[in-house]
Amino acid sequence: MTRYSILAFCLVISKATLAAGDTLVLTLNQCVDLALRQNLALKISANEQRKSRIDFNQAKWAVTPEISAYSQGNLDLRRSTNQNNQITPGTNYTLNYGISASLNVFNGFIALNRIAAQKYFHWVTDAKNEKFKHSLYLDVVSLYFECLLYNDAVSIARDKTHTADARLEHIIQLKNNGLRSQSAITEAQADVSNYRLEQLRAENAYRLKLMQLAQLLEIDITQPVAIKPIAPNAAQPVQTSQNTDSIYLIVLENYPAIQQKELELMYYQKISNIKAGTLSPNLSLFAGTGSSFYSADTLATGQHTSLSEQFSKYLNPSVGVRLGIPIFSGFSRTNSVRKSRIDVENAILALELERKNVYATIESAIQQQQANLYEYQMACDHLQFESAMHAMYREKSDLGLITSIEFSTEQNRFAEAQMAVQSAKYAWWVQNLTIQLMKTGNYSVGTE
Fold it and tell me: What are the residue ranges spanned by the domains of the chain?
């Protein structure tokens, strides 16, 4: 077998293997559901949410007393000091043990501000996760409609190939009847070869897009995947009355990108309060009790004192108050406060910038949707004229009044007109779903 024969055999086996499996046909809603459920990056974002929740719960315990037990042992191998502070020879050991507790009474409200900061940070991670969902949704929508467009390109390429095959057969019949020359057959064969190449390229591009969609949805790429077109009654672009300002007012209430920046501002404000709290005095209470055991503690008779006797003998409860007043630390606290205020200022600017970007996105989406609608309407009108021209050129071709090159040129124009309609339609849908997502935050697509 030649190299090309082996390659063709492998391709046939590969296609047969794919055909043997069950094809997974997905609607747009199913694609969105799979992405939101299986995307690995989204799962990582959800885990960050869980971590921030744990940090928030942990911060609440900062206002409670801290209780700890301690124990310290010391082994002297040659000599040691007994309970009477006398040096005794030999190997002896000492054990100190007890329990202590401390409570911050005042520390510039650092603990309370840290709880609030962790709460806002947890909400920030919630908004980030929702923002990621929005981005993932738009990626799925965009890629889904690209797959539809590439699928339409395959259908159009197949129609062109079918037409070229039929035309070649017709020319062969005319040649057999003495009405065409061999050169006409050669031209028709060249057209068939060219259209088959275009079809192959279109099919390969479509498979690549399907593979990209499967990767985005975390689907096994060895499983055949196909997409279900949107319902015909919902597929046609229509005129919509969209107002940028009214949509913007809705978006301000629920859009995660804006919510994230608002919560980040509150978070940095609490961080600034924490830094300012380090400049204030701090007051804490502490208490504890402990005892000791000395192996060298003996009675007058030379007998070792028991553990229970030594526990009562050396038991030492204690209480205390600690007052700390920061005086000088190389301006580290002061500079930390200054930097935190800059963070707050940057958060305010970032919020304003995000609001402007969202407004610009809404305005651009509405304008683009309107432009796509006009383009779709013009493309539909143009397609009607091209359809009539295509039928006329096909009739002329059958009568032998035009050359293969002229018919091929017209057929390409007809295909371009068909693609222009589909491209404008799908672009309108992408903008429409973008606007709907920003208005409602709903991931369900009403196109099926």
Answer: 20-64+107-280+330-440, 69-105+284-325
CB 447 within 8 A of CB 28: yes
Handedness of CA 438, 443, 444, 447 (dihedral sign): positive
CB atoms within 10 A of CB 30: 16
Cβ atoms 430, 145 nearer than 8 A: yes
* pTM check: above 0.90: no
CA distance 168 to 173: 9
Q: What is the per-residue pLDDT across 52-97, written as a single tens digit (0 to 9) for each?
A: 999 999 988 888 889 999 899 887 776 666 666 677 676 777 889 9
Nearest to 269 by CA among 402, 448, 113, 396: 113
Q: Which amino acid is at 337?
A: V
CA distances from 59 to 114, 279, 376 (A): 7, 21, 57
The two beta strands, 282-294 and 318-324, are antiparallel
* Tokens 């970007």, located at residue: 357
Are 353 and 395 within 8 A, CB to CB?
A: no
**C-beta separation of 196 from 147 below 8 A:** no
Which CATH number applies to 20-64+107-280+330-440? 1.20.1600.10
Amino acid (one-letter) located at 300: A
- What are the φ and ψ backbone dihedral angles of 97, each rounded to 5 degrees? -150, 160
User: Per the structure block, which two tokens stand in for 407?
Assistant: 């018919």
Write the CB contacts of 436 (distance below 8 Å, at least 6 apart in sequence): 442
Question: Phi and psi at residue 98, in whole multiples of 5°?
Answer: 170, -170
CA 116 to chain CA centroid, nearest Å:
27
